[in-house]
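By way of example, we now present a protein record of this kind:
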Amino acid sequence: QVQLMESGGGLVQPGGSLRLSCAASGSISSFNVMGWYRQAPGKQRELVATMFRDALPNYGDSVKGRFTISRDNAKNTVSLQMNSLKPEDTAVYYCNLKVPPYTYWGQGTQVTVSS
């Protein structure tokens, strides 16, 4: 059974940085996409960043130039470096793994950007 374990998150001031990490465990095909989505209160879940193995990442428009996704394919981990954080980045961040035809989600980690 595939499980996703997230770490990181917390409270940070505007302009600050945070790093999220996610480790996938279980039997996982190397043909997968890993990444991050987020959901703010009262809003739909939205794409933050995804990455297929060593291909170019795909970023949501609101985080381009500020967030960087990276993967360690050998360890089935994905990280998200978040810089220049804004109050509107406040949300629950979910790790996501797509192994067609299946999609897996982490339990979510809260990121709060506030002074």
Q: What stands out?
A: The chain has a mean pLDDT of 95. The first strand starts at residue 3 and ends at 7. The CA atoms of residues 31 and 50 lie 14 Å apart. The chain is about 0% helix and 55% strand.
